[in-house]
Protein backbone atom coordinates (compact mmCIF):
# COMPACT_ATOMS: atom_id res chain seq x y z
CA UNK A 1 0.00 0.00 0.00
CA UNK A 2 1.01 3.64 -0.40
CA UNK A 3 1.59 4.83 3.17
CA UNK A 4 2.39 8.38 2.10
CA UNK A 5 -1.00 8.72 0.44
CA UNK A 6 -2.62 7.40 3.61
CA UNK A 7 -0.71 9.97 5.68
CA UNK A 8 -2.08 12.73 3.45
CA UNK A 9 -5.62 11.36 3.62
CA UNK A 10 -5.87 10.44 7.32
CA UNK A 11 -8.05 12.59 9.58
CA UNK A 12 -9.39 12.01 13.08
CA UNK A 13 -12.96 10.74 12.74
CA UNK A 14 -15.50 11.19 15.53
CA UNK A 15 -18.76 10.41 13.73
CA UNK A 16 -19.47 6.84 12.58
CA UNK A 17 -22.42 4.91 11.18
CA UNK A 18 -22.38 2.48 14.10
CA UNK A 19 -22.28 -0.66 11.96
CA UNK A 20 -19.71 -3.43 11.68
CA UNK A 21 -16.71 -3.55 9.34
CA UNK A 22 -16.99 -6.04 6.46
CA UNK A 23 -15.07 -9.30 6.75
CA UNK A 24 -12.48 -8.64 4.03
CA UNK A 25 -11.39 -5.31 5.50
CA UNK A 26 -11.47 -6.73 9.01
CA UNK A 27 -9.18 -9.57 7.95
CA UNK A 28 -6.62 -7.09 6.58
CA UNK A 29 -6.75 -5.08 9.81
CA UNK A 30 -6.42 -8.06 12.15
CA UNK A 31 -3.45 -9.32 10.11
CA UNK A 32 -1.78 -5.94 10.61
CA UNK A 33 -2.51 -6.06 14.34
CA UNK A 34 -1.17 -9.62 14.61
CA UNK A 35 2.03 -8.64 12.79
CA UNK A 36 2.60 -5.74 15.17
CA UNK A 37 1.91 -7.88 18.23
CA UNK A 38 4.39 -10.52 17.13
CA UNK A 39 7.12 -8.07 16.16
CA UNK A 40 6.92 -5.94 19.31
CA UNK A 41 5.57 -8.35 21.94
CA UNK A 42 2.24 -6.54 22.37
CA UNK A 43 -1.32 -7.72 22.98
CA UNK A 44 -3.34 -5.21 20.95
CA UNK A 45 -6.83 -6.54 20.25
CA UNK A 46 -9.77 -5.73 18.00
CA UNK A 47 -13.09 -5.26 19.82
CA UNK A 48 -16.03 -5.65 17.47
CA UNK A 49 -18.49 -3.86 19.75
CA UNK A 50 -17.16 -1.47 22.35
CA UNK A 51 -20.02 0.99 21.96
CA UNK A 52 -21.13 0.92 25.59
CA UNK A 53 -17.86 2.63 26.60
CA UNK A 54 -18.89 5.63 24.49
CA UNK A 55 -22.68 5.67 24.78
CA UNK A 56 -23.20 6.89 28.33
CA UNK A 57 -23.71 10.49 29.38
CA UNK A 58 -20.14 11.13 30.47
CA UNK A 59 -16.72 11.97 29.13
CA UNK A 60 -17.46 11.11 25.52
CA UNK A 61 -20.93 12.69 25.35
CA UNK A 62 -21.06 14.96 22.30
CA UNK A 63 -17.48 14.11 21.34
CA UNK A 64 -18.23 10.91 19.41
CA UNK A 65 -21.24 9.47 17.61
CA UNK A 66 -21.94 5.98 16.32
CA UNK A 67 -18.80 4.40 17.78
CA UNK A 68 -18.91 0.61 17.56
CA UNK A 69 -15.56 -1.06 16.91
CA UNK A 70 -12.36 -0.34 18.82
CA UNK A 71 -8.72 -1.30 18.74
CA UNK A 72 -7.63 -1.81 22.33
CA UNK A 73 -4.04 -0.72 22.86
CA UNK A 74 -2.30 -2.81 25.52
CA UNK A 75 0.83 -4.80 26.25
CA UNK A 76 3.29 -5.91 28.94
CA UNK A 77 3.28 -3.62 31.96
CA UNK A 78 7.02 -4.11 32.47
CA UNK A 79 7.98 -3.04 28.93
CA UNK A 80 9.73 0.34 29.25
CA UNK A 81 9.00 1.05 25.58
CA UNK A 82 5.35 -0.04 25.72
CA UNK A 83 3.73 3.30 24.90
CA UNK A 84 6.13 4.07 22.07
CA UNK A 85 5.54 0.63 20.54
CA UNK A 86 1.77 1.04 20.82
CA UNK A 87 1.95 4.42 19.09
CA UNK A 88 4.06 3.00 16.28
CA UNK A 89 1.97 -0.13 15.67
CA UNK A 90 -1.37 1.58 16.25
CA UNK A 91 -0.61 4.32 13.75
CA UNK A 92 0.44 1.75 11.16
CA UNK A 93 -2.94 0.04 11.64
CA UNK A 94 -4.63 3.44 11.29
CA UNK A 95 -2.87 4.12 7.99
CA UNK A 96 -3.92 0.67 6.76
CA UNK A 97 -7.51 1.44 7.80
CA UNK A 98 -7.33 4.79 6.00
CA UNK A 99 -6.26 3.02 2.81
CA UNK A 100 -9.35 0.80 3.18
CA UNK A 101 -11.63 3.83 3.40
CA UNK A 102 -12.30 3.55 7.13
CA UNK A 103 -12.27 6.29 9.72
CA UNK A 104 -10.20 6.20 12.91
CA UNK A 105 -9.30 8.29 15.94
CA UNK A 106 -6.81 7.91 18.80
CA UNK A 107 -8.68 8.26 22.10
CA UNK A 108 -7.00 8.48 25.48
CA UNK A 109 -9.57 9.73 27.94
CA UNK A 110 -12.94 10.63 26.37
CA UNK A 111 -14.57 7.29 27.21
CA UNK A 112 -15.22 5.01 30.18
CA UNK A 113 -11.75 3.60 30.82
CA UNK A 114 -13.01 1.53 33.77
CA UNK A 115 -15.54 -0.35 31.65
CA UNK A 116 -15.16 -4.15 32.14
CA UNK A 117 -14.61 -4.62 28.40
CA UNK A 118 -11.12 -3.18 28.92
CA UNK A 119 -10.12 -5.69 31.61
CA UNK A 120 -6.55 -6.91 31.12
CA UNK A 121 -4.64 -10.01 32.11
CA UNK A 122 -2.20 -9.95 34.99
CA UNK A 123 0.97 -8.13 33.97
CA UNK A 124 -0.74 -6.21 31.16
CA UNK A 125 -1.30 -2.46 30.87
CA UNK A 126 -4.20 -0.85 29.03
CA UNK A 127 -3.12 2.50 27.55
CA UNK A 128 -5.77 3.82 25.15
CA UNK A 129 -8.08 2.89 22.28
CA UNK A 130 -8.51 3.66 18.61
CA UNK A 131 -12.06 4.09 17.34
CA UNK A 132 -12.51 2.58 13.90
CA UNK A 133 -15.40 2.18 11.51
CA UNK A 134 -17.43 3.45 8.60
CA UNK A 135 -17.49 7.23 8.47
CA UNK A 136 -20.81 9.05 8.69
CA UNK A 137 -21.19 11.75 6.04
CA UNK A 138 -22.04 14.45 8.55
CA UNK A 139 -19.34 15.36 11.05
CA UNK A 140 -20.17 15.77 14.72
CA UNK A 141 -20.45 19.31 16.09
CA UNK A 142 -17.36 18.80 18.25
CA UNK A 143 -15.50 17.34 15.28
CA UNK A 144 -16.26 20.41 13.20
CA UNK A 145 -15.08 22.72 15.97
CA UNK A 146 -11.85 20.76 16.51
CA UNK A 147 -11.07 20.67 12.78
CA UNK A 148 -11.58 24.43 12.52
CA UNK A 149 -9.26 25.30 15.41
CA UNK A 150 -6.63 22.68 14.59
CA UNK A 151 -3.54 24.36 13.18
CA UNK A 152 -0.33 22.37 12.63
CA UNK A 153 2.97 23.91 13.63
CA UNK A 154 5.28 25.29 10.99
CA UNK A 155 7.78 22.76 9.63
CA UNK A 156 10.67 24.66 11.22
CA UNK A 157 9.14 24.20 14.68
CA UNK A 158 9.62 20.42 14.54
CA UNK A 159 13.41 20.29 14.37
CA UNK A 160 16.76 21.84 15.15
CA UNK A 161 19.95 21.42 13.14
CA UNK A 162 23.56 22.50 13.12
CA UNK A 163 23.70 22.69 9.33
CA UNK A 164 21.62 22.50 6.17
CA UNK A 165 19.36 19.44 6.25
CA UNK A 166 18.94 16.99 3.34
CA UNK A 167 15.74 16.65 1.33
CA UNK A 168 14.93 13.24 2.82
CA UNK A 169 14.97 14.78 6.30
CA UNK A 170 12.50 17.49 5.27
CA UNK A 171 10.30 14.80 3.67
CA UNK A 172 10.26 13.03 7.03
CA UNK A 173 9.39 16.21 8.92
CA UNK A 174 6.58 16.97 6.47
CA UNK A 175 5.07 13.58 7.29
CA UNK A 176 5.50 14.21 11.03
CA UNK A 177 3.61 17.49 10.68
CA UNK A 178 0.58 15.46 9.56
CA UNK A 179 0.79 12.98 12.46
CA UNK A 180 -1.93 12.96 15.14
CA UNK A 181 -0.92 13.78 18.71
CA UNK A 182 -2.55 14.02 22.13
CA UNK A 183 -4.32 17.36 22.52
CA UNK A 184 -2.87 18.23 19.09
CA UNK A 185 0.25 19.27 21.01
CA UNK A 186 2.80 18.00 18.45
CA UNK A 187 5.56 17.91 21.07
CA UNK A 188 7.90 15.42 19.39
CA UNK A 189 11.12 17.14 18.33
CA UNK A 190 13.74 16.03 15.82
CA UNK A 191 17.37 17.06 15.62
CA UNK A 192 19.93 16.86 12.82
CA UNK A 193 23.37 17.38 14.31
CA UNK A 194 26.66 16.04 12.93
CA UNK A 195 24.54 14.20 10.32
CA UNK A 196 22.80 12.24 13.11
CA UNK A 197 19.01 12.32 13.42
CA UNK A 198 17.31 11.89 16.78
CA UNK A 199 13.69 12.07 17.95
CA UNK A 200 12.62 13.05 21.46
CA UNK A 201 9.64 14.17 23.50
CA UNK A 202 9.43 15.82 26.96
CA UNK A 203 7.44 12.87 28.45
CA UNK A 204 5.53 15.26 30.68
CA UNK A 205 2.08 13.91 29.75
CA UNK A 206 0.87 10.31 29.89
CA UNK A 207 0.52 9.95 26.11
CA UNK A 208 3.73 11.72 25.03
CA UNK A 209 5.56 8.44 24.39
CA UNK A 210 2.62 7.17 22.32
CA UNK A 211 3.03 10.32 20.23
CA UNK A 212 6.75 9.57 19.92
CA UNK A 213 5.99 6.21 18.33
CA UNK A 214 3.47 7.78 15.96
CA UNK A 215 5.88 10.53 14.88
CA UNK A 216 8.75 8.08 14.38
CA UNK A 217 6.61 5.94 12.09
CA UNK A 218 5.61 8.93 9.95
CA UNK A 219 9.23 10.05 9.67
CA UNK A 220 10.45 6.56 8.73
CA UNK A 221 7.80 6.07 6.05
CA UNK A 222 8.70 9.33 4.32
CA UNK A 223 12.47 9.44 4.86
CA UNK A 224 13.30 5.75 4.50
CA UNK A 225 15.12 4.11 7.41
CA UNK A 226 14.33 3.28 11.02
CA UNK A 227 14.73 4.52 14.58
CA UNK A 228 15.90 2.45 17.50
CA UNK A 229 13.51 2.35 20.44
CA UNK A 230 13.69 4.95 23.17
CA UNK A 231 13.42 8.66 23.79
CA UNK A 232 16.12 10.64 21.95
CA UNK A 233 17.10 7.55 19.96
CA UNK A 234 19.04 7.56 16.68
CA UNK A 235 17.73 7.15 13.15
CA UNK A 236 19.49 4.81 10.72
CA UNK A 237 19.09 5.25 6.99
Describe the protein in words.
The protein has helices spanning 3-9, 23-40, 82-99, 141-149, 167-177, 208-223; strands at residues 45-47, 69-76, 103-107, 124-133, 159-161, 189-193, 196-200, 226-227, 233-236. It is α+β, with helices and mostly antiparallel strands and 237 residues long. It has two domains: 3-144, NADH Oxidase; 150-236, putative nitroreductase (tm1586), domain 2 (NADH Oxidase, 3-Layer(aba) Sandwich), CATH 3.40.109.30. The strands form two sheets. It has a five-stranded mixed beta sheet with strand order 5-6-7-9-8, covered by helices on one side. It has a four-stranded antiparallel beta sheet with strand order 1-2-4-3, covered by helices on one side. The model has no long low-confidence stretch (mean pLDDT 93). Belongs to the nitroreductase family. This is Nitroreductase family protein. Residues 4-223 form the Putative nitroreductase TM1586 domain. It comes from Ruminiclostridium hungatei (Clostridium hungatei).
Total helical segments: 6
CATH class of the largest domain: Alpha Beta
Strands, total number:
9
Q: What's the order of the H and E elements? A: HHEEHEEHEHEEHEE
Fourth-tier CATH superfamily name of the largest domain: NADH Oxidase
Radius of gyration, in Å, reads 17 Å
What helical percentage do the residues reach?
A: 25-40%
Q: What is the mean pLDDT?
A: 93
Helix/strand/pairing category: alpha+beta
Query: Which percent band covers the strand fraction?
Result: 15-25%
Distance separating the two termini: 21 Å
Strands side by side in the biggest sheet: 5-6-7-9-8
